[in-house]
Amino acid sequence: MIYSFGKYILLLRLSFRKPEKFTVYWAEVMREMVSVGIGSLGIISIISVFIGAATTIQVAFQLNSPLVPNSIAGSIARDSTILEFSPTISSLVLAGRVGSSIASQIGTMRVTEQIDALEIMGVNAPGYLIAPKIIAGVTMVPLLVIASIALGIFGGWIACGASGDISPSDYIAGVQGGFNGLTVRVAMVKAAVFGFLIASICAYQGFYTSGGALEVGQSATKGVVYSCVMILFADLVITRLML
Amino acid sequence: MIEVKDIHKTFGENEVLKGISSKFLPGKNNLIIGGSGSGKTTLLKCIVGLHDPTKGQVFFDEENFSEMDFEQRVPIRTQIGMLFQNSALFDSMTVEENVMFPLNLFTTQSKAEKLDRANFCLERVNLKGKNKLYPAELSGGMKKRVGIARAISMQPKYLFVDEPNSGLDPKTSILIDDLIAELTEEYNITTVVVTHDMNSVMGIGDHIIFLHNGQKWWEGSNHEIAKTDNKELNDFVFASKFMQAAREKL
Q: Do B186 and B68 fall into the same domain?
């Protein structure tokens, strides 16, 4: 495990070496940003609306008491969405969607000698293949999480209207009341860290693939599993440190 | 010129190369031949720096490549072209983008100049007009030719070719061999070809080294190979009845 961690750190160091030509790398970064950001927007939107709606209904159910104002369900749903559901659940989904794609793409390049071809040309393969993916992960996952938060809260509002457990106006009052900006800062830190973990762990698994199609599949699976575990671990650490 | 001196390569406890030394001259088709598992591809990978030799040195025009770090190797690597066994074209790029890729990274040419060069290289390998196709849309022989076009796009001094004939029909195989030989002579390139194809050996082998059990077992030209009394080499080269009959006619 220590050996693998050392290899992972060395690979990260190689990834952020000075690029051979900035414009070529910049184009790769843009391409990866589109792939990670725009490519994941659909799935993130769908899960965010549903999770926001389900959370609101469950909170309303649990706080169904004459002693508790109805608007409190909106506040709890908002904070849960910002602090936990949007960054963590979205990142776990992204680990599956983006992470497996990164690991299998780089793994396939390894087993078909495309990475060897890059190295023979004098290209820093980790820099060309991994750094743009990490930059895309660190920048686009927070943007996706912002969209997820907005859609999650919107999903809660739809659920209020549809179920009638609490009125949409009580929900909006709860969402607007007692807002603490720290929750958004925590969510952004989590999103950036999770984006880094997904891209770097899956790229590492792909880069050191050896064998053939079977091993590429195994690398993708390992990449997703390890990044999910690390996301949950980092979630705990960041929550403990920042709250 | 490329020179390898006493190259050893060990994987775990398995010693794959046991002290290979040779010189590969410019303008010549230098062939590395041998049976499966004899260490041909490992030797090629040691020469180009994909493997670090356990012991021994590789010199490119008297510069010690083995002792250089990544940054120091870049100027030499930009003079290297390599054709891989499976062509190793970048799947996400078109034929044209594949050929232009090294130019984009290592030259300051304008887009028009790079496009001109790519078109020239594609024309040179008889693939004019195939610029916008993706590797998945090409046949095995076409992929090899795109690989050659990409390898020569930077006007290399050194060309490495790993199993150029694998998976090709005999006619395409000969076309690829002829193309490699033409380019070698035309641009005075130091070409190193790993092969076990006997047509290549007899057709373009200006300088041949035969590996057996990780050692250099024999060295010579295609003219000398028919007359050798080296048992292992004879067993390898004249394994088929066709080759035995051809030898008797020589």
A: yes
Tokens 């780089």 correspond to A106
Confidence of residue A15 (pLDDT cuts 50, 70, 90): very high
Instruction: Band the pLDDT of A240: cuts 50, 70, 90.
Output: very high
Tell me if B21 is assigned to some domain. Answer: yes
Q: Three-state SS across A160-223?
A: HHHHCCCCHHHHHHHHHCCCCHHHHHHHHHHHHHHHHHHHHHHHHHHHCCCCCHHHHHHHHHHH
HSE toward the beta carbon, residue B64, CA cutoff 13 A: 7
Rg of chain A in Å (alpha carbons): 21
pLDDT for the residue numbered A65:
85
Residue B154 CA to its chain's centroid (Å) = 16
Q: Residue B136 — φ and ψ, nearest 5°?
A: -65, -20
CB-CB neighbours of A71 under 10 Å: 20
Residues in contact with A18: Cβ distance below 8 Å, sequence separation at least 6, in sequence order: none
Residue of A nearest to B89 (CA): A114
Under the banding of pLDDT at 50, 70 and 90, the label for residue B248 is confident
Are the beta carbons of A238 and A185 closer than 8 angstroms?
no
Nearest CA in chain B to A22: B105
Same domain, residue pair B18 and B58:
yes
For residue A123, list chain B residues with Cβ-Cβ distance below 8 A: 105
pLDDT of A51 over the 90 cut? yes
Range of the domain at B209: 2-79+156-249
Counting the structural domains of chain B, the total is 2
Nearest CA distance, A120 vs chain B (angstrom): 6
Q: What's the whole-number mean pLDDT along residues B160-177?
A: 87
Q: Show me where the domains of chain A are located.
A: 21-242
**Residues B93 and B75 reside in one and the same domain:** no
Q: Spell out the residues 6+ positions from residue B69 whose beta carbon is closer than 8 angstroms to its own.
A: none
The Cα–Cα gap between B3 and B7 comes to 10
Residues B97 and B168 grouped into a single domain: no
Residues B168 and B233 in one domain: yes
Indicate whether B97 and B202 sit together in one domain.
Answer: no
Which residue of chain A comes nearest to B108, CA vs CA? Answer: A21
Q: Is B50 exposed, middle or buried, given 0-12, 13-18 or 19+ CB atoms closer than 10 A?
A: middle
Please report, as a single letter, which amino acid is at residue B107.
T
Q: How far is A223 from chain B (nearest CA, A)?
A: 22
What's the token pair of residue B3? 């020179």
Residue B197, φ and ψ in degrees, nearest 5: -90, 120
pTM of the model: 0.89
Out of A198-202, B31-35, B241-245, the most confident range is A198-202
B84 is a domain residue: no
